[in-house]
Amino acid sequence: MKRSSLRNIGALARRELGFYFNSSVAYVVLIAFYAVSGAWLFLMDDPSTGLGFFEENHASMRRLLDAVPLFFVFLVPAISMRLLSEEKRTGTIELLASWPVSDAEIVLGKYLGGLGLVAVALVGTAPLTLLVGSLGELDVGAVVGGYLGLLLVGAAYLALGLMTSAWTKNQIVAYLLGALLAGAFYFVDSLGSALPGGADSVLGALSFRAHFQNFARGVVDLRDLVFYASFVVVALVVTSQSLSARGWKR
Fold first, then answer.
1. Distance between CA atoms of residues 250 and 242, nearest Å
2. Which among 69, 92, 138, 247 has the fewest CB atoms less than 10 Å away?
3. pLDDT at 182
């Protein structure tokens, strides 16, 4: 990639990340995420065991790591919904058209800006991890693998949300479509038992949840890394093509 392209992408990413923290978007998303995460970890009973955190009598982040992909179904589309839809609604995308940037650079820049906020959200849960670690011995491998998996799940959700943001000028529509697609790809493996033939293996191969489970156990499998990377690339290519097809840039 040319140096000028990297500069363009970096400038756009900083522009988007700066927007989040210069408005209320980042603070609303982060406060909501941290509040829900803390409450789920320490106050709610684990659905699989029916026990509260302190009743389980061992230090583990697993209940939170398993729940965050569900929280992200609702939170990540809130980050992505405005990335392109708001630009088109306000007409500022025409300003971008006057910049010496390509559609792919715009998509990558905006994507990396949104991904920066997702990463900040995950890093901000470090105090919860440290608190749990102070109460007992943590499985460090499972925690590190789980957080890597969460970043990849968030990256995939964000790519879907950016794609839906390119399809509409309405942020609410972009949010709903992004959340719907994120939820569908997370739970798609649950449909396998209701379909004939080898549908379960095919749907499992497409499921974010199935590919996340190895990370939550502390196992980093190359196949899971390739799956998420491939999914993000495909979604970003579709997003770029959606921009080009609308002919906004001359």
1. 15
2. 247
3. 94
**Which residue is listed with tokens 């919860």?**
128
Exposure of 228 by Cβ count < 10 A (0-12 exposed, 13-18 middle, 19+ buried)? buried
pTM of the model: 0.90
Angle at which helices 208-216 and 171-187 pack, to 10 degrees? 70
Tokens of 183: 């939820």
Token couple for 234: 């495909």
Nearest 10 degrees: Cα torsion 164, 168, 71, 237: 20
d(CA 244, CA 31): 36
- pLDDT tens digit sequence for 22-38: 888 889 989 999 999 99
DSSP state string for 93-147:
HHHHHTSS--HHHHHHHHHHHHHHHHHHHHHTTHHHHHHHHHHS---HHHHHHHH
Distances (CA, A) of 21 to 17, 30, 86, 116: 7, 11, 17, 11
